[in-house]
Design brief:
Layout (H helix, E strand, L loop, with lengths): L1 E3 H17 L3 E2 L9 H9 L5 E3 L2 H9 L4 E4 L6 H13 L1 E6 L2 H10 L6 E7 L13 H9 L4 E8 L10 H24 L6 E4 L5 H4 L7 E2 L9 H6 L9 E10 L3 E4 L3 H4 L16 E2 L5 E6 L4 E5 L10 E5 L3 H5 L4 E6 L2 E7 L8
Parallel strand pairs: 1-16, 2-9, 3-4, 4-5, 5-6, 6-7, 7-8, 8-9
Antiparallel strand pairs: 1-10, 10-11, 10-15, 11-14, 12-15, 13-14, 16-17
Keywords: Lyase
GO biological process, one term: D-serine catabolic process
Family: Belongs to the DSD1 family.
């Protein structure tokens, strides 16, 4: 797994600049890279903290000295809440709340402990976790009555933007994403519940949402690397994709080329349903005549639209469809700069999914 340092820095700098230009905070989602090295790079570039998907990711980052952490996941399991107790003692940890039942369980776990900061998660169209706008006042009111929790924010994740059919649709989703957060915050403040943090920003939408008045924070993750899903959405270009997989040609047939990169290297992800612009299982740089049409566990099968110059043992770089999924398949990043290998970084939170 190769990581282009120049492109990574360019991508990180762009997010930082967008946040500064719009006078908002930036809290990158580290589930994309799962790397302490990259998280610290993002913090050095001005990130206010990090976002994680899983408690284990938070624990790894906290051990490395990163202490401002949003766990964007509604924890309720008793064993996880016990671990959260320990984590919260040494960090500024915030967790997602999306039901009164969950809030009661979290409150009970923090009896006699430091008050836990929580944010309400709103559904902005992904229809996964998150409550509806009309439910927010009831949940916010319930939280304010729980003595061990402090409500300070409202956030959402417009993951359905990955299925947009055009950049115009992405912009519309970004507007709607911000609207539900701002409406929710306004509804709470009308009943005297202050909402300090109003957080949005999937990778497809963050550039547009950052400009909307009232939003205080963006949380792009994939934007550190980008990938072919983002290219397909029109959000970026292949030249900005920092993560690639180095593959070798292991067999040449009349109508196909076989590479040593199957589903255990590239994953079977073809993007969100509806994103029709993602073709195959990754883009082979400099060989547009080859479509990576099929993956088995150890084999990537490329079909040919015209004659190719590729031959046995040749090496190629493949831009994956979904860099977040691919990063979790490897132990290390081989970091390169101007064509030279300059370092090797651990994927520190690889496999930390609990």
């Amino acid at each position: 797994m190769l990581l282009d340092l120049t492109k990574l820095e360019q991508n990180v700098n762009e997010i930082s600049t967008i946040a500064k230009t719009n006078n908002i905070k930036w809290r990158p989602h580290i589930k994309t890279h799962k790397s302490i090295q990259i998280a610290k790079m993002q913090m050095a570039k001005g990130a206010c903290g990090i976002t994680v998907a899983k408690l284990e990711e938070a624990e790894i980052m906290a051990e490395a000295g990163i202490t401002n952490i949003l766990i964007a996941y509604p924890l309720s399991n008793s064993r996880k809440l016990q671990r959260l107790q320990s984590l919260a003692e040494k960090t500024e940890t915030t967790i997602a709340i999306d039901s009164i039942e969950q809030a009661i369980l979290v409150n009970k776990a923090f009896v006699g402990r430091k008050r836990l900061e929580v944010w309400i998660k709103i559904n902005s169209g992904l229809n996964r976790c998150g409550i509806e706008v009309e439910e927010v006042v009831e949940l916010a009111t319930a939280i304010t009555k729980l003595p061990n929790l402090t409500l300070t924010g409202i956030f959402t994740h417009a993951g359905h933007s990955y299925a947009a059919s055009s950049l115009e649709e992405v912009k519309a989703i970004a507007t709607a994403e911000a609207k539900v957060v701002l409406q929710s915050a306004k509804a709470c403040e009308e009943v005297n519940i202050p909402i300090k943090h109003r957080s949005i920003g999937s990778t497809p939408t963050f550039k547009f949402g950052a400009k909307i008045k009232g939003i205080t924070e963006i949380r792009p993750g994939n934007a550190a690397f980008f990938d072919m899903c983002q290219v397909g959405l029109g959000v970026t270009t292949p030249s900005r994709c920092a993560l690639t997989i180095l593959a070798s040609v292991v067999s040449c047939k009349k109508e196909r080329i076989i590479f040593d990169t199957g589903s255990k290297a590239l994953s079977l992800d073809q993007g969100a349903h509806g994103n029709k612009s993602v073709v195959g299982y990754g883009s082979i740089i400099n060989y547009p005549e080859v479509t990576l049409a099929r993956l088995s566990e150890e084999h990537g099968v490329g079909t040919l639209s015209s004659k190719t110059s590729l031959k046995l043992t040749d090496k190629v770089q493949i831009i994956p469809n979904h860099s977040c999924a691919v990063a979790n398949l490897f132990d290390h990043y081989i970091v390169h700069h101007n064509g030279l290998i300059v370092d090797e970084w651990l994927v520190d939170a690889r496999g930390k999914m609990k």
